[in-house]
Amino acid sequence: MKAAMLRSVLRRSCSTTVPSASHVMRRGFSSESSPERKVAVLGAAGGIGQPLALLMKLNPLVSKLSLYDIAGTPGVAADISHINTRSEVAGFMGEDQLGQALEGSDIVIIPAGVPRKPGMTRDDLFNINAGIVKSLCTAISKYCPNALVNMISNPVNSTVPIAAEIFKKAGTYNEKKLFGVTTLDVVRAKTFYAGKAKVNVAGVNVPVVGGHAGITILPLFSQATPTANLPDEEIKALTKRTQDGGTEVVEAKAGKGSATLSMAYAGAIFADACLKGLNGVPDVVECSFVQSTITELPFFASKVRLGKNGVEEVLGLGPLSDYEQQGLEALKPELKSSIEKGIKFANQS
């Protein structure tokens, strides 16, 4: 696929963006008119990190692309640096180069950590990935405390609260700048819904709220557009498939990986939305797991309006069907437990 085609994919927002005239004009930012923006990818040599780095290299809103990992980054950076797009690429390897990788970053994307394997839950990843996230966020608080942080490392329901606590301890926490990337849940919900509704997926929108694991993932198919009036049993099946999408890929790869490619795509889409928000594009709305007051839980995924400061507004859930209301109540205990587990880890260790 040619670079121009891939760039057009990135520009095709999966958000609930309102297509105003100024928005349409600004979405076509050329490199000459775009501000300088540095994006750092932490975990850039991994299964998600490499395709994510490639997709960010294709984004014309990025002027500097910083790739960091504990090993393998020089080769990935050399490879990607040969691509004839705007951004300058630099690779950094090992803890002693982490500060250099982060300095001056506008957005830090964190796909670092171990992937899921068959039989593993996201909670099984906790002990390894929680420690990785803690050390990376400690460095972020020191070297780029004002950056937007896009957390991909699982379990997101716990790693986002860990990051918040680490930033609080450092005195740098800004709830408007910390995001759990739940875009893959939205991407899956759109794809699966379009297939059942027999509509063009490019025009589909489905909000997904709650968290980012199992039953905490709640797609709001009652709010999906275009409306398809699918029967209840199909809505339930679509909900279950969206919730189990990660497991579907893990099992299909039979021990050789997790949802790395689709996650990289979703991560690139969300980072693109953050860049547009920073650059002043109006009405950029994406679902994300953020500090929230729309439920009694301290963190919750819902539609978020993005802007120059990160989160401009956390939007409400809107009207829910009876089935979705039941799902909302059912997910709260598990999500609450995951959030508390992250907070406890950050404050004990």
N-C termini distance:
46 Å
Structural class: alpha/beta
Q: What's the β-strand tally?
A: 11
Rg, please? 19 Å
- Largest sheet: number of strands, sense, barrel closure: 6 strands, parallel
Low-confidence stretches: 11-31
Q: Helicity, in percent? A: 40-55%
| Average predicted confidence as pLDDT | 92
Order of helices and strands: HHEHEHEHEHEHEHEEHHHEEEH
Proportion of strand residues: 15-25%
Counting H and I runs of at least 4 residues, what is the number of helices? Answer: 12
Domain Lactate/malate dehydrogenase N-terminal: 38-180
Family: Belongs to the LDH/MDH superfamily. MDH type 1 family.
Pfam families: Ldh_1_C, Ldh_1_N
GO biological process, one term: tricarboxylic acid cycle
Account of the protein in words:
The chain is of the alpha/beta class and 349 residues long. The protein is built from twelve helices and eleven strands. The strands form three sheets. It has a six-stranded parallel sheet with strand order 3-2-1-4-5-6, sandwiched between helices. Strands 9-10-11 form a three-stranded antiparallel sheet. Strands 7-8 form a two-stranded antiparallel sheet. Strand 10 and strand 11 (310-314) form a beta hairpin. Mean pLDDT is 92; it is low at 11-31. The active site is at 212 (proton acceptor).
Topology:
Blueprint: H1 3-11, H2 21-27, E1 38-42, H3 49-57, E2 64-69, H4 73-81, E3 88-93, H5 98-102, E4 107-110, H6 126-143, E5 148-151, H7 156-170, E6 178-180, H8 183-197, E7 208-210, E8 217-219, H9 232-243, H10 245-252, H11 260-278, E9 284-291, E10 299-307, E11 310-314, H12 322-348
Parallel strand pairs: 1-2, 1-4, 2-3, 4-5, 5-6
Antiparallel strand pairs: 7-8, 9-10, 10-11
Helix pairs in contact: 3-11, 6-7, 7-12, 8-9
